[in-house]
Specification:
With 205 residues, the protein is α+β, with helices and mostly antiparallel strands. It folds into three domains: 69 residues, no CATH class; 73 residues, no CATH class; 39 residues, no CATH class. The protein is built from seven helices and eight strands, in the order H-H-E-E-E-H-H-E-E-E-H-H-E-E-H. It is elongated and about 95 Å long.
């Protein structure tokens, strides 16, 4: 993610020395030591690590700086949305936090770059900006993954009566992700053509 945005460790070092939300990096000249502190909620700090070599602190810096901060440091190069999982009698994932604070967890981000969006060749239409188009696309991907997690993926089998009056499979399709709340009608449209199906199957002797 950092490489895609052109963010170097030196950029993170400078950020940690000035404006980082959760950490503070300082250099003690008398001891010739780099010190990394974690900022606590009570406005105090705790020492995480110190070393003469600043690079020794890199792993801890990466662990403490949030993805949101990295997105901010990308200066618009990265488009991202948060990911929340609601885990209670099943798992569902969304870019919006569930109202239940006990079973909902923040698990990371889904992200891309504007350059990657341009490489797809699919561009926004009308007054939609490339950034809003990218965000909508990310949300759509999360929605599809949520359908997979919740079992909202369907298939159909088309059967026809043969000359002996036996039902015979003539067509099938699986892995269908519905776009509405009426998957059965969508599958019927997919199988028989939009408006070419009936809700009830009429069987004549």
């Amino acid at each position: 993610m950092m490489q895609s945005a052109g963010i170097t460790m030196e950029t993170l070092h400078q950020y940690a020395q000035k404006d980082a939300k959760h950490i503070r990096l300082i250099y003690q000249r008398e001891e010739c030591l780099w010190q990394l502190y974690r900022k606590l909620n009570d406005n105090t700090e705790e020492l995480l690590l110190e070393d003469q070599d600043k690079e020794i602190l890199d792993d801890d810096i990466l662990e403490e700086i949030s993805l949101k901060e990295i997105v901010m440091l990308s200066q618009g190069k990265i488009i991202a949305s948060p990911l929340y999982i609601y885990d209670h009698s099943g798992v569902t994932i969304s870019t919006v936090r569930n109202s239940d604070p006990w079973d909902t967890s923040y698990v990371g981000m889904i992200w891309t770059t504007l350059e990657k969006v341009k490489e797809t060749g699919i561009m926004p239409t009308g007054e939609e900006t490339l950034e809003s188009f990218a965000k909508d696309t990310l949300k759509a991907e999360v929605h599809m993954y949520d359908q997979y997690l919740t079992g909202e993926v369907y298939g159909y089998i088309v059967e026809t009566l043969d000359e002996n009056g036996e039902w015979e499979e003539s067509d099938s399709c699986y892995g269908y992700y519905p776009a509405t709340n009426d998957p059965l009608m969508e599958l019927a449209d997919e199988a028989f053509g939009k408006g070419q199906h009936t809700k009830e199957l009429a069987i004549t002797a």
